Amino acid sequence: MAEHADLDVLRDRFARALDGARGPAGGPDPTPYADDLLRRWSQPQRHYHTLTHLTAVLDHVDALQEYAADADVVRLAGWFHDAVYLPERSENEERSARLAERALPEAGVPADRTAEVARLVRLTVAHDPADDDLNGQVLCDADLAVLAAAPSAYAAYAAGVREEYHFVPNDAFREGRAAILRQLLARPHLFRTPYGQRHWEATARYNITSELEMLSP
After folding, report:
1. Are 106 and 18 in contact (CB under 8 A)?
2. Which of 28, 138, 161, 207 could form a disulfide with 68, with the two C-beta atoms 3.0–4.6 Å apart?
3. Segment 54-79, tens digit of pLDDT
4. Of the candidates 104, 22, 117, 24, which has an alpha carbon nearest to the alpha carbon of residue 69?
5. How far is CA 212 from its chain centroid?
6. pTM (2 decimals)?
């Protein structure tokens, strides 16, 4: 029952974000669109990019919404940002953005806001929003907030990522993962919102450094 309750809560969250983005003109019933996304986020190849991650991103967007230019558009981007996810493919963000470009106009979202959702989804390839990109900063910070999780939650995140890439040999995975973590540490800021920099930056750098040490041969 709890799972059904959680799905109902997520459906309601999607409906509110969709209503906010499509404005007074409204549109069709949000439920089929929510159900399609929930089905995608529940696929068996996912071990980190799951409904738990989706919920966490939405929660973080809520916490950061004061910094966004259009919080409901950012919420929709959160819904779509990993809606297409096959670990062995490299174009997941592009395919997720195209899904948004198909679904949102049909759901009643105006063209300019649909385009903004798709732009934000594509931004999660590099998580490097411009200094004046308020929506992008909120989405990227929300997506990367897991880096600042408590040690047990960070360990579960790292284990989930490894499980998604189970087909990659250990040495190759360690090398690739370490390269990504070093790139993150080299950035002046992991987080771009004032809240993220204040509350998440130091913990995230500690977690990443600790994981790098464990990946070292």
Report:
1. no
2. 138
3. 999 999 999 999 999 999 999 999 99
4. 117
5. 22
6. 0.95
Q: What share of the chain is helix, strand, coil (3-state, %, to 5)?
A: 70, 0, 30
Q: Is the pLDDT of residue 168 over 70?
A: yes
Q: How many CB atoms lie within 10 A of CB 146?
A: 22
Count the neighbouring beta carbons within 10 Å of the beta carbon of residue 21: 25
One-letter amino acid at 74 equals: V
Q: What separation in angstroms does the CA of 124 have from each of 3, 44, 80, 112?
A: 28, 22, 11, 19
- Dist CA 193 CA 40 (whole Å): 29
Residue 89: Cβ-neighbour burial (10 angstroms; 0-12, 13-18, 19+): exposed
Residue 31 structure tokens = 């439920």
Mean pLDDT, residues 84-104 taken together: 96
